[in-house]
Amino acid sequence: MRKTETNLIHTGEEFNKTKAVVAPIYQTSTYFADENLDEYVAAATEPKHPEFYHRHGNPTNSQVAAVIAKLEKTEDALVLATGMAAISTAMLAVVKAGDHIVAQNAHYSGATLFLKEFLSEYGITVSHVDQTNNQAFVDAIQPNTKLIYIETPSNPNLDITDLAFVGQLGKEKGILTMVDNTFASPINQVPSEFGIDVIIHSATKYLGGHSDLTAGVICGSKDFIVKAWRRSITLGASLSPFDSWLLLRGLKTLSLRVHQINSNALALAEWLEKNPAIKKVAYTGLKSHPQHELAKKQLKGHTGMLCIEVAGNDEEEEFKNAQTILSNLTIFANAASLGGVESLVVHPASMWGSHHSKTQKQVSGITRGMLRISVGIEHIDDIIADWEQAIGKI
Ligand SMILES: *Cc1c(COP(=O)(O)O)cnc(C)c1O
């Protein structure tokens, strides 16, 4: 069996019917029928057919899906226009009015909005539990629970959900399990190995890796992907030919990038933890992470995501100091998103100010002195020097 690095470059090549070493961009909305009309009719109805009409499929979309399904060790995958399209399409392929979902307190903000505001208007109820408490998932299950939706490590505070426990719980109770694996990337974490049924990514982040596209992917069994595809052709968020091509290109270096990012992030986390200007560093690779042992069981590497709390005499001063750091960092741009080759930093309390109420922020563990960092592949010496000078401005 070929290894990941090889698969990233060669999986799905059968979808490139040309002699071009790099698959062309199929910048077309539609494909003509040849003489055999029966074949055309079959193409119109076959899920994900790559050459019928773009909303149904595209050769590059099929190639990208094959690469990601291989990484995630699932039978199939479906690529869509954004991570949120993947999340909403996948959930709507599972639940209908009258059903119940068990989810976490902390999720990506868009997922939280979808769970709390959108689904409730369509008669779907959701229980939110503390992801670090296995029993809370068990206790939240109701007779009409159809989905357990998790995210690990979660955004922004890097809490861990026990994948093996949730995978087993889903199997025992006959409930579908779904995880947002964006933060880890499949290089660091393969949830299907722990019995999770459906894996979602915002491919905008690590999979694309260059902050130049938006995309999402749903990975699962062949049957589930057909269900999700049927939803997707009515919801309509197909991934554009060019973004798909960029994603295919970005994926080739995924393993190289993620390994460098893991190593940079661990070094930065260790440096920050020793700095008195920083009150707390949440990084799954540090021994001080309350779930470090569990993290080691399910993560092969600890990702580029860390979350810190800046020190200060009171909350106001912590906020002020966080702002000083934020505005003085030069390599780390203050920008939404994560997982690219360039380092980014955000102030979660400001970024999600409009989405989250004060209590929601408390439940999600967001404080005003908190900064979320996405470490890139710049040289580690420059990364640390940037933090050193920015902290020096306090
Ligand atoms: C960014 C992100 C999403 C949403 O992805 P988009 O591509 O922006 O729609 C979902 N989950 C996580 C964990 C994310 O970081």
From TrEMBL:
Cofactor(s) annotated in UniProt: pyridoxal 5'-phosphate
InterPro entries per UniProt: Cys/Met-Metab_PyrdxlP-dep_enz, Cys_met_metab_PP, PyrdxlP-dep_Trfase, PyrdxlP-dep_Trfase_major, PyrdxlP-dep_Trfase_small
Keywords from the UniProt entry: Aminotransferase, Pyridoxal phosphate, Transferase
PROSITE patterns recorded: CYS_MET_METAB_PP
Transmembrane segments: none
GO molecular-function term, one example from the UniProt record: transaminase activity
Pfam short name (any one): Cys_Met_Meta_PP
Similarity comment: family membership: Belongs to the trans-sulfuration enzymes family.
Name listed for the protein in its UniProt record: Aminotransferase class I/II-fold pyridoxal phosphate-dependent enzyme
